[in-house]
Amino acid sequence: MLYGRPTEPGFSCARCGSDRHRFDHLSTAYSYLLGLYLGDGCISKHPREVFRLRIALDVKYPGIVEECVAAMQAVVPWNKVHAQLTPKNYVEVHAYSKSWPCLFPQHGPGKKHERRILLTKWQRDLVDLTPELLLRGLIHSDGCRFINTGSYGWRCPRYAFSNLSDDIKQIFCRTCDQLGLHWTVAPPKSVYVSRKADVARLDEFVGPKR
After folding, report:
1. β-strand partners of 158
2. Residue 188: which H helix or E strand, with range?
3. Hey, is 66 helix, strand or coil?
4. Residues 170-185, buried b or exposed e (16+ Cβ, 10 A)?
5. Is the pLDDT of residue 141 over 70?
6. CA 169/CA 59 separation, integer angstroms
7. pTM above threshold 0.85
8. Cα–Cα–Cα angle for 70, 191, 65, nearest 5°?
């Protein structure tokens, strides 16, 4: 069942069988988890209509792994969340639930950059309340903060977000617009936030990966 299940009996989701979803009652951690999913997540089907959400994270950043575990647990508090090191030396955070396709309707066959990725209205309404968390998740998955250098010896911090999906890049840019952050595009797959004031604003809720 999903976080925020209703009190009225007799209703269930036709897709997963859980109590009728109250997406407006989801933990605010959902916005962060959505950012991670759009970058480095996937959902796979298992027997008995159970699905597994997996987020692949760099072993070098244990703080991000811990934050991902906490966010996933907040979204499905009745389910166990696991974090394990894979043979390919990255950490996989995962949990099983029948409700993952309902929580992440972007799930579908094929790679994300080969299909449309659009947020539903309830997702937009939810992440509009916490756009900082969505950007934090997107940057923690497919972005970074680095020092940009110039030919005359200048050094300035800069944020980059890279993804093959134009739709996911548009979600990133739209969220930047919502926060008043200026961005530039470097084809084919990167978006940069470079202005000093905008980098300082991102530093308030993202900062270097840890």
Report:
1. 146
2. none
3. helix
4. ebbbebbeeeebebee
5. yes
6. 25
7. yes
8. 15
Residue matched to tokens 């756009």: 131
Looking up tokens 């950007």, which residue turns up?
135
Is 37 within 8 Å of 55 (Cβ atoms)? yes
The tens digit of pLDDT for each residue in 61-106 reads 999 999 999 999 999 999 999 999 998 889 999 999 999 999 999 9
> Which ranges of the chain would DSSP assign to H, the alpha helix?
29-40, 62-75, 100-103, 121-127, 131-142, 166-178, 196-205
3-state SS class at 14:
coil
CB 147 within 8 A of CB 157: yes
Residue range 29-70, pLDDT digits in tens: 999 999 999 999 999 999 888 999 999 999 999 999 999 999
Placement of tokens 């605010």 in the chain:
28
Cβ 148 vs Cβ 155: under 8 Å: yes
> Closest Cα to residue 101, out of 3, 200, 15?
15
At residue 170's C-alpha, the angle toward residues 168 and 175, to 5°, is 100
The per-residue pLDDT for range 150-181, each reduced to its tens digit, is 767 678 999 999 999 999 999 999 999 999 99
Cα Rg of the chain (Å, integer): 18
